[in-house]
Write a structure and sequence with these properties.
The chain starts with a helix and ends in a 13-residue tail after the last helix. It contains 16 helices and 15 strands. With about 450 residues, it is of the alpha+beta class. It binds adenine. Adenine binds next to strand 2 and strand 6. The site of adenine has 11 residues, from strand 2 and strand 6.
Length: about 450
């Protein structure tokens, strides 16, 4: 919790040892160059989660803001039994927190380090891996950094791939903020990356799957050397030897996976039809769009608390901002392009309590002769104007423990000098709510 306490002022306080009052953060599960993963428990549901904390500054420095937005939106939609789910994204001033499904069984490679797997067990995990990889590839999502740390096990000893869609965000940024592709061991990296050729994300993932399969079956790496340059050369030559216990069918498949030429390397479709692979393969059956369209259908205890955007809102509480909101806000506080053309509006930050924000909006609107049609703890809708041509919706979203985003959308059917209800009448009355560097009080 210490690290997270220092991560930002608003996400937790010494009295409240939770992150956003929602997650009790526990032990460190793992860490990379700039991201740390903690075990945490959802205080409402008692469900275990893993929280990956990333320094925002590094994302900004790495010029990865757009990548983060894109990757998160993709990850949120990935639902597959062998992929760790992204449950929500939170942020404070300094960090972004990815709340992930918790894989209780730990790293797969901790098991293989004890002793190599039988061919049948190797096949079972490889089938699960290819099922996850194929699912992502069919959606244009590539991992690009498949390696042992990203292969976890759940409580039933099934594989869970983590960081799909996140690797471009997390593992490619060095502490200096620069993008990198080659940090750590290149043992799982495809030759075309080492040779700095342009590369195809799908082919690169297949190569890494080949290395993983080799390790599962043999207990050691196909291309290895204490000297990195020698290891590079071995990878690029593609010269490897399978252990004597390897069946001819597996040997054939490994040679197709570890083909140094990406153009002739086996594809996911070909793997699925491979005779060694097919033994006992149970395809994960689902309709592609089913998972995306029925967004919340398979949720369990969180069903009622999940917003349509994948963020959580408990009952009538403020919606915690979703990834897009957080990033468009927290990376520069820039508001743009969020409303459609017919609507006007604004978003601003407020440090005032939500009740006070709602009461102020109501008072200002009623003072202008408008009618409140909906009023909740976190939203208010008003209509009216001289010709009943004005409508306004104000919605509050919690950004941090202290800060609330006030999102205002307005519609005026006739826009003219006598019809600027929002700009001339309402907006000035809300100035006192706006958090600037030193927030002005409402008096
Ligand atoms: N280590 C990294 N991510 C994890 C997760 N989702 N569950 C368990 N351990 C992890």
């Amino acid at each position: 919790m210490r690290e997270l306490d220092h991560a930002g002022d608003e996400s937790s306080s010494p009295a409240d040892k939770t992150l956003f009052g929602k997650y009790e953060v526990g032990r460190l599960l793992g860490y990379g160059a700039f991201a740390k993963v903690y075990h945490a428990r959802d205080v409402h549901t008692e469900r275990s989660v893993a929280i990956k904390a990333i320094n925002k500054q590094r994302i900004i420095k790495g010029g990865l803001t757009a990548n983060v937005k894109r990757e998160i939106s993709i990850m949120r939609r990935l639902r597959h039994p062998h992929i760790v789910r992204l449950l929500e994204v939170l942020a404070n001033k300094k960090k972004i927190f990815f709340v992930l499904e918790y894989a209780k069984g730990g790293e797969l490679f901790a098991k293989v380090a004890k002793s190599r797997f039988s061919e049948d067990l190797s096949r079972r995990y490889f089938q699960q891996l290819i099922s996850a990889v194929g699912y992502c590839h069919s959606r244009g999502v590539y991992h690009r950094d498949l390696k042992p740390e990203n292969l976890l096990l759940d409580e039933n000893w099934n594989l869970k791939v983590t960081d799909f869609g996140l690797s471009a965000v997390t593992d490619q940024i060095r502490p200096d903020g620069l993008l990198h592709t080659l940090c750590g061991t290149p043992a799982y990296v495809a030759p075309e990356i080492l040779l700095k050729k342009g590369y195809d994300g799908a082919k690169v993932d297949i190569w890494s799957c080949g290395i993983i399969l080799f390790v599962l079956n043999s207990g050691y790496l196909p291309f290895n050397d204490p000297n990195l340059m020698v290891m590079y050369k071995k990878i690029c030559s593609g010269d490897f030897r399978v252990p004597r216990w390897t069946s001819p069918d597996l040997k054939r498949l490994l040679s197709r996976l570890l083909d140094t030429n990406p153009a002739t390397r086996i594809t996911v479709d070909e793997i699925i039809n491979d005779p060694w692979f097919r033994v006992g393969f149970k395809e994960v059956k689902f309709h592609h769009d089913y998972l995306e369209l029925k967004d919340d259908d398979d949720d369990d205890e969180d069903e009622n608390s999940r917003g349509s955007d994948g963020s959580f809102a408990s009952g009538d509480n403020l919606k915690i901002m979703n990834a897009f909101d957080i990033i468009s806000f927290s990376l520069g506080y820039k508001l743009s392009g969020l409303f459609d053309d017919r609507e006007d509006g604004e978003r601003f930050l407020s440090k005032e309590p939500p009740e006070k924000i709602i009461e102020t909006v109501v008072a200002v609107a009623e003072g202008e002769g408008l009618t409140v049609v909906t009023k909740k703890e976190w939203c208010v809708k008003v209509v009216g104007g001289s010709k009943c041509n004005f409508a306004m919706a104000v919605e509050l979203k919690r950004l941090t423990e202290e800060l609330v985003v006030v999102e205002v959308r307005t519609r005026e059917s006739e826009v003219g000098p006598s019809n600027r209800v929002w700009k001339d009448k309402i907006r000035p009355g809300l100035n006192c709510l706006v958090y600037k560097t030193g927030p002005a009080g409402c008096g």
